[in-house]
Design goal:
The complex is a heterodimer of chains A (226) and B (239). By secondary structure, chain A is mostly helical. Chain A contains nine helices and no strands. Chain B is α/β, with parallel strands linked by helices. Chain B has eight helices and ten strands. In chain B, α3 packs parallel to α5 and α4 packs across α5. The chains are: A mainly alpha (226), B alpha/beta (239).
């Protein structure tokens, strides 16, 4: 167990260190998120009623689009100098690599989402302070499910020529129930409703988190072996 | 040398589509022995190494490494082997020390700072331990990829063109390192199509033609010219 934890940690450490040095993904995602917000701002306009109806969807659309970009790059670094082959040859449980990759992706996505929430508040003149804890719970649960499947599918498509096309085509249909639950829960939370009122959606998200992470852990070895 | 082979390949066949790359290949490698597998481009040298490294599953036949079947029990085989292939298996944005820490930890070894420094000193990279690999030459990257085996200590080294791209000093270092690995009881399979320093390290020469071993002979007192003549006789005439 200790070895598993050490192997997981070393993968997270390596991915975050490479990202800190190269800043390729975070910089790209930040500017992409900023561009999205400009587009949304023009599309929705200043109408407050219209904004209230579309904001949850827009927020998750921004999360999903930036997530797709970030997750799609998860295994790009492993293609450099054939590191993918060396990962495959590393003895021991491959699910440690999956959990490490997932944790690194989660951290990156949560940073981008935190920035996006702040920018949403600023761009659309919203006071999110009161709903922030509840919003964080919904975002956290939704992001785990998204990153769990995204990390697995990123590994699955990493060695495929049309991976940029295949990755979202595979990922988005699987995410449909998660997207439905997150948008509905976010809508209620932004209207000031307590978390208890969206408990059914939160349960669905928690179940999706458990199922998706378990599927990733159990199948990653086969995915890596190709 | 012990009598039991550490590697035993029997009737190995590998096909990709309609193309038969390996065709009934037999090869034994004993403990402390180094075999240089010579062959033209496309002869199947890299495929043989990939089968032994568990990266490619054989179509027919068996490949046993340290008593474990490469196809049925790849996980156990991976604990016994070290592969140095065309890729250097290093991350360009990490330092030499960080790369080494990552790969040996992933292999289940918990290296102390002194052990890491010692491994880097062994491959003569201790002075650039904290420099990013992006600035390294191909030879330095090759040495760094070998450094992990100083700490992980596999029983079998699988090397694909190990001396390619190295300068004279690095070649000399690698030759000494491989000799010391053999002396420690390790076995080596080297794929090559050159007649350089690989032959000095090798105890046996195996010439691969059309996916099978056409000649397997002890290197003994054979000079590089003798090997070249044998190679021409067996390989080039059939190509």
């Amino acid at each position: 167990m200790l070895t598993f934890a050490r192997r997981t940690f070393i993968v997270v450490w390596k991915d975050l260190l490479v990202e800190r040095r190269s800043k390729e993904t975070l910089n790209a995602l930040f500017f992409f998120a900023l561009l999205l917000l400009f587009v949304f701002q023009f599309a929705v306009g200043p109408d407050r009623e219209r904004l209230a109806g579309t904001l949850p969807g827009l927020l998750w659309l921004a999360f999903i689009l930036s997530g797709l970009l970030g997750l799609g790059r998860t295994f790009v670094v492993e293609r450099e100098n054939d590191c993918w082959e060396a990962l495959l040859l590393a003895p021991g449980d491959k699910s440690a690599i999956y959990i490490g990759k997932l944790a690194g992706n989660l951290l990156l996505m949560l940073v981008v989402e935190a920035i996006l929430v702040v920018l949403f508040g600023f761009f659309f003149n919203l006071d999110l302070g009161a709903v922030l804890p509840a919003l964080a719970v919904v975002i956290g649960l939704g992001t785990v499910a998204f990153a769990a499947v995204g990390t697995l599918f990123a590994a699955m498509t990493a060695q495929v020529r049309a991976r940029e096309l295949l990755f979202p085509v595979l990922l988005l249909p699987v995410q449909a129930p998660v997207l439905l639950a997150t948008v509905k829960a976010t809508e209620a939370v932004l209207l000031g409703e307590p978390l208890g009122s969206v408990a059914h959606w939160l349960k669905l998200l928690a179940a999706a988190d458990v199922v998706y992470v378990a599927v990733g852990v159990l199948t990653f070895d086969f995915v890596l072996e190709g | 040398m012990a009598a039991d082979p550490l590697i035993r390949v029997t009737g190995l066949r590998k096909t990709f589509g309609n193309h038969r790359v390996l065709d009934g290949l037999d090869l034994d490698v004993r403990v402390g022995e180094a075999v240089a597998v010579l062959g033209a481009n496309g002869a199947g040298k890299t495929t043989l190494l990939k089968v032994l490294a568990t990266l490619v599953r054989p179509t027919r036949g068996t490949a046993i490494v340290a008593g474990h079947d490469c196809a049925r029990d790849p996980e156990r085989v991976r604990r016994e082997i070290g592969l140095v292939a065309h890729g250097s298996y290093v991350y360009e944005d990490l330092t030499a020390s960080e790369n080494l820490t990552f790969w040996v930890t992933l292999a289940g070894v918990r290296p102390s700072a002194a052990a890491l420094a010692g491994a880097l000193a062994t491959v003569e990279l201790d002075r650039v331990a904290d420099e990013r690999v992006r600035t390294f030459s191909a030879g330095m990257k090759r040495r760094l990829s070998l450094a992990r085996f100083v700490l992980v200590r596999p029983r079998v080294l699988l090397l694909d063109e190990p001396f390619a791209g190295l300068d004279q000093r690095a070649k000399k270092w690698l030759e000494e390192h491989l000799a010391s690995f053999k002396a420690g009881g390790g076995s080596i399979v080297m794929a090559t199509h050159s007649f350089g320093r690989e032959l000095a390290v090798a105890d046996r020469i195996a010439i691969l033609v059309g996916g099978a071993i056409a000649l397997d002979t002890p290197r003994g007192a054979l000079s590089a010219d003798d090997v070249q003549r044998l190679y021409a006789l067996h390989a080039e005439d059939t190509c």
